[in-house]
């Protein structure tokens, strides 16, 4: 029963990686849409794009870390 709980918890923790994958696509899609509408402002927003990408990926890695902790430590 305890083993089953570990697997269920780790699976639920991995749902954060799904959100990260969707978030990255949304970030880049929105940037490209804005860059096509106003190409002169695209270069000034590139730093915000990279920051959003890094934060989103960090959340996905964090959810993977929580899943691994649930499997091997708890």
- What is the overall pLDDT average? 89
Number of domains in the coordinates? 1
Structural class: mainly alpha
CATH architecture: Up-down Bundle
| Main sheet: strands, sense, barrel | none
Q: State the name of the first-level CATH class.
A: Mainly Alpha
Question: What count of helical segments does DSSP give?
Answer: 3
Shape from CA axes?
A: elongated
CATH topology: F1FO ATP Synthase
CATH superfamily: F1F0 ATP synthase subunit C
Low-confidence stretches: none
Give a count of the beta strands, DSSP E runs of length 2 or more.
Answer: 0
The rounded distance between the terminal residues' Cα atoms is 13 Å
Please give the share of residues in helix: over 70%
Gyration radius from CA atoms, angstroms: 17 Å
Q: What's the SSE pattern?
A: HHH
Strand content: under 5%
Keywords: ATP synthesis, Cell membrane, CF(0), Hydrogen ion transport, Ion transport, Lipid-binding, Membrane, Transmembrane, Transmembrane helix, Transport
Family: Belongs to the ATPase C chain family.
Membrane topology: Multi-pass membrane protein
Subcellular location: Cell membrane; Membrane
């Amino acid at each position: 029963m305890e083993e089953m709980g570990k697997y269920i918890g780790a699976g639920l923790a991995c749902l954060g990686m799904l959100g990260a994958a969707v978030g990255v696509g949304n970030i880049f899609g929105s940037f490209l849409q804005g860059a096509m509408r106003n190409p002169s402002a695209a270069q000034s927003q590139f730093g915000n794009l990279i920051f959003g990408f890094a934060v989103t990926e960090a959340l996905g890695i964090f959810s993977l870390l929580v899943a691994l902790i649930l499997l091997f430590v708890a």
